[in-house]
What we know:
With about 160 residues, the chain is mainly α. About 75% of the residues lie in helices and about 0% in strands.
Amino acid sequence: xxxxxxxxxxxxxxxxxxxxxxxxxxxxxxxxxxxxxxxxxxxxxxxxxxxxxxxxxxxxxxxxxxxxxxxxxxxxxxxxxxxxxxxxxxxxxxxxxxxxxxxxxxxxxxxxxxxxxxxxxxxxxxxxxxxxxxxxxxxxxxxxxxxxxxxxxxxxxxxxxxxx
Length: 164
């Protein structure tokens, strides 16, 4: 019985391993396409994953639209995708969304939201976000700072899968 159990256990472990490899494959394929300049393929692959809630793919779509790689440059579309990833806790998406709010690119300019997104990114160790947040804080009123800090304190990530 123990031999049969070990065999079943090995099959289960192998199937989990292969499913993990298969899950990482499309993201790696999209990254390779992007790095190789095949933006149409990267866009298609990232979009499929992003539509399923993949925060890394959502972030990548934000980058594609912000930089205009294979698509018309579109700050509003970039902000949309960054927001979806940021809502899941993606620290670089939170930072980029903060930049967009600070500069009014793709979204209405809003120092309070910019500061809050920077703070959330800082909480995950983003030192660039810390420097940017601190510079922004010098241009804010005490009331605005209090509002931003409250938003960051009360923020909760969306319950979508955040996988790679």
